[in-house]
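LOG
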Amino acid sequence: MTDLSDDPGLQALAKPRSLDALLNPRSVAILGASSDATKIGGRPVKFLRTHGFNGPIYPVNARATEVQGLRAYADLDQIPSPVDHAIIALPGSAVLSAVRACAERGVRAVTVFSSGFAEVGEVGRAAQAELGMIARDSGMRILGPNCMGFMNLRSGFLGTFAFMVDLGLPPLGRVALVSQSGAFGGQALVMAREQGLPLGAWVTTGNECDVELADCIAHFSQDPDIDVIMGYMEGCKSPERLIEALALAQMAGKPVIMVKAGRSDVGRAAVQSHTGALAGDDRVFDALFHEYGVHRAHSVEDFFDVARACASGVMPREGRVGVFTVSGGIGVLTADAAEQNGLDLTPMPALAQERLRALLPHASVRNPVDGTAQIWADMQVFETFLRTMLQEGNYECVLLFLTAMPHAPHLQAPLADILTRLRQEFPQVLLVLSMLAPPALSQQMQAAGYLLFEDTTRAMRAVAALRSLAAARQRHRCAGPRLASSLLPDLSAQTLAEARTEHAVKQVLTACGIPAPIEMVATTEDEAINAARRTGYPVVLKVLSPDIVHKTEVGGVALNLRDDRALASAWREMMARVRREAPNAQVDGALVAPMVGPGLEFIVGVQRDPIFGPVVVAGLGGVFVELFNDVALRIAPVSREQAHEMLRELRAHALLRGHRGAPAADIDALADVIVRLSQLAVRHADTLESIEINPLRVFAAGQGVLALDAVVLARGDAPSQDTAA
């Protein structure tokens, strides 16, 4: 892990107000403390006293002189010593005055259990907004309201009312779990205990009037006692804080495993554009997580599997996996799962195979290595097989499938000795154990450092996730300014906002260094013919209208017109079709442009996301863009390196490189368009809903690109019957 104190780039990002007083307090007051340890105000008193917190605990209860054996105080002012942290377990109506009293007293952090805020309506939202203002004005950090609290398991500070604590705590470790949902956080706490996930911290953020999930990620990114961060997210209030937090975690080398619930409703007014459809749902979060190396878990099972794998501390980079099994069928299933997840089952070296076959002639010794049931007859042979794989296989991960044989009493002691010894001798290898065994043996092996999975398919998915996380760590970049300087000329915001037709948009693009064909505007049939004669046949004719986005859908495009007669006929037919198909559209004439040479058709667009602002979309374009759905996304602005990375993610990247003898395309020119369009969108973010180039014709390497069609939608533009796709 990276030490933040040694990295100027990390120090520059570490700007948020500290959460130390919140998550690692030295003293605590509980407002609404109860002598009944089953009540919300009683549980934190009980938990703090019984789980090792060494600081002063001050129960505050105006109707009691003692709470659970501790002296109680009528109010904060009677507490004789400084209070780092206050837990508020009061009715919602009493919270605001209590939080104000905490701020006046100089309390550094507050946790609010109480509900009755933004989740219940307008009055609650106003009260919650006031809590946020108190936090900002005083500098005091507030967790909640409507949260289940938090636990610092290392210090024994259990500032929570979660009854799950009574069921038992997970083992102490170096994993932090942060949840916006208290219910999910409570379930996750029980699952962590049942699965032996080693937790160091557990936080639920509730309504997030002040402290957000992003703040917690940033805090744990800088916490030397935390190596892995788990997060459950339902929404994002502060995208800049989230991006900064993920950048901190990435640069610190700390894996982030995230469950993101819900779907983002991305600019439904922009259904007019392909870009709006392609950037829909929660693809923007996918793009963000990819950029910052976050593993997005699509199930709770995956969430915990990958977190447990990360907690092992071994991150395979190449994905070289060895499989030892005593069941040929399971070996095949495991090999299938490894291949499906992109892992490498390199065979054992030939000499090693010969030595193993000499020991057990009926064994399969390639990879998977199948010792068959005979191997249990001689535990020395068993150990030799495993040791040979670990010493000579050059595997980053070795999975051992042992069936239910560890239940045999005579095997348990020698098996535990062998496995413990091998774990100690090969700490650099991720050792995964799949077996059915007595709980005591399983716990012993987990404590020794084995990663336990009953299902080998799940194990292979988790190992593949580790490999992806390791690859993301290798490619990470310093998350300072996303772009050092702009490539664009100084254009006014009004220029783009007034670009209501394809021709006007292309003029803006050309001024920004994005090339487009030479074209002329014609308002009559004769003007179109004169324009075609000047440009030279063959030409393309396209209807010019601020109200028609998809011209082909109303018959507004005619291609490869080779003479005056063909052009005149196309003009008349086009204008008649457009009047019939889009009777309310304003028609300003048509564009006449020369036909351009062959090339690949791509789409490059930017769509405004309601959370993150401009989002760049690039991929295979033309009329089949939504059919093939081959696109990559990034939050704008985009650097050249990011643009090239986007293109490498596409299935169509093989076409760009040159497929089956076709020449390679001008990838650099395509990447340059992505960069420039992203910068243009950021510059006009306040007025822009979307901007799209489709198709962008990409020619052979060194021959550039041309924007063949382009459209801009300004903020507030509503789709009509003539424009909606």
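LOG (cont.) second protein
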Amino acid sequence: MRVRQLTAAAAALLLAAVLGGCSDRPAPARPPAPEPLPEVTAATGDVRPVDRTAVRDGGTLRWAVDRVPATLNVYQPAATADSALLAHALYPSLFRPDGHGRLVPDPDYLAGAESTPPGQQPQVVTYRLNPHAVWSDGTPLTAADLIAQRAALSGLDPAYGSGHPAGYDAIDAIGQGADPHEVKVTFRRPFAEWQSLFGPLYPAAETSTAASFNQALTGGGHLGAGPYTVSRYDAEDGLVTVVRNPLWWGDRPNADRIDFLAVAPERRIDALDQDRLDIAPITAAVDRAVPPAPTASPSAAAPPAAAPAAPPAAAPGAAALALRRAESLPGVTVHRATAASLTQLTLNAARAPLTDPALRLAVGRAVDRRRVADAALTPLGIAPAALGSHLLAGDQDGYRDNSAAAGPADAARLFDEAGWKRPDGGGPRTKDGKALALDLLVPAGSATAKRTADALTAGLAEQGVALRTVTAPADTFVKDHLAVGDYDLALFSWPAGPGPASLQRPAYAKPRPDQDGALDPGSNYGRSGTEEIDRLFDRAAGELDPATRLDLLQEADVRIWQLGHSVPLYQRPELVGVRSGVAGAGVWGFDWPRFQDVGWSRTP
């Protein structure tokens, strides 16, 4: 069987949303009980509103990133989440998401935008660019920048090494409107999520040819049009420094400098404690914390030099201690919320016995989503909320719990109807003499994943389903397991956010035969799908009426529930440590930082 290779960008997108890891090693005996943590509402994001008059002018912020990215072009295969973070400080986005996952015009770049009404053909979007918006060489943003980006991302020229995000291939033509600040985009077919285009937008000089587009974009000497501009880009020293853009036309950036420092996740709590960071995502530092290594006795034999290092085992006790320590750091506040990322239990429909849709529905109904969400989120001080949608986050505009579409709540009845009977004395269900025992694949090293797996194992055991946890490190989780179908059940997350018709479709698109005739699941790791679900997504993507588009997405979600493809569980947790006195920082959720607002308060 030929397996489609994931691009680096696609793998990074999924693995950025993967829970983390876990293992079967139990937590240390009688770990110290964590102190009660304050609960927050299950909202996507936790950033307190900024009163700019209360933020002082000047100062430096020290911001942790995983590494200095190889490129700032988010459309290149080498792009990472850190690429996107820096790009939003340096480049325009015509629209940006609000706190409920809706795209709204960014007035720094866009004076207005409107699309022709539903039913009118062809669809034409008219953009009014902010006449003050200029690139860092003083030239204004114009139709030429949109034209070049469309050519690079449409997929028409294979020389451009990009992921071809949805929508650019639907554009027929782009041209100047009534004046240089007006741009008209004509679509060859309706594209409902047109607000997702041109964000970030790069200058035509960087995208007009395949050679310029494919070149690594590292800030030095390149044009930008954000509140900040790059003054140092040093991969060897792990530092990117941005300073105020002298040509910036919007609100004056509060901080005059931001140092983005490459700090390994496991070192960030120490760095906060030592006053070396001001803003630090610490989800991985807590989630992947390990207990101190035991002191070896003098007579202990040394391990063989060739023995490979195993991934650290997940230790919920160590994670609790790490969170307690972060919470106790003087002068640091831990912001916590759920992320724009949907954690789900995916069922492999291509591997027996889950090839039977009746069994998949029974397994899905046997999952106690509230119990699982409580196990995952409550220890982090986040109010647990079980998800009921495959496509939308809990506080996203249009969210609806469609889980009732999966059938009767009586899982035992569904198992019996599928032929899997429970022995009178209890134990796993059986059919044709074979016990119902399934492997549960989880990423290695995550306490949250371990808590989730333990809750799933206990709950399904009560229904007569035996689970065996199998762990895999992040670098092999997708390519060696999800992509080849080496699992029964798998625990991972999928991004949520604006444009669900385009964003979510790949996860549920019906697998098709590849050029060798073998089934190619693409990004649908559950390997179940239907023509009807594909049509619903396609209709939603082309439906310009918002209410009708949402109805189509809800119907697609109902059909996914009825297919027994996967079980939404909860939104992935996110923790960010922020030094006291820093305003405008925290867990951003659907949004990204408004960099000109982040700074030091006048009164800490």
